[in-house]
Design goal:
Mean pLDDT: 97
Low-confidence stretches: none
Largest sheet: 5 strands, mixed
CATH topology: Alpha-Beta Plaits
Helix content: 10-25%
Shape: globular
Number of domains: 1
Structural class: alpha+beta
Strand content: 35-45%
Strand order of the largest sheet: 4-1-3-2-5
CATH class: Alpha Beta
Radius of gyration: 12 Å
């Protein structure tokens, strides 16, 4: 079990990426959240099975949907008690 914070840069807002991220996370039994940042980036925190998180990170690098991810940074962080995956505004 691990938790990872990801920050995505590029064409990541206004293209439905948060909803794709939430759908993929929920389908893989991951919990956490995704949110637009004021500077045009998107941040997500995902928690669950380590292999599922690694696969999720690789999937993001494919620029899913209409997104174009120019840069993806991440770091593993402390676990929380999240029970679901949510989309923040």
């Amino acid at each position: 079990m691990k938790r990872r914070r990801l920050v995505l840069v590029g064409r990541v807002q206004g293209v439905g990426l948060r909803y794709l991220i939430a759908k993929k996370a929920r389908a893989n039994s991951l919990v956490g959240f995704v949110a637009n940042l004021p500077d045009g980036q998107v941040a997500a925190e995902i928690q669950g099975n380590a292999a599922a998180i690694d696969n999720f990170t690789q999937w993001l690098q494919t620029s899913p949907g209409w997104s174009k991810i120019d840069n993806l940074t991440y770091q593993d962080i402390a676990l929380t008690d999240d029970k679901i995956f949510t989309i923040h505004d």
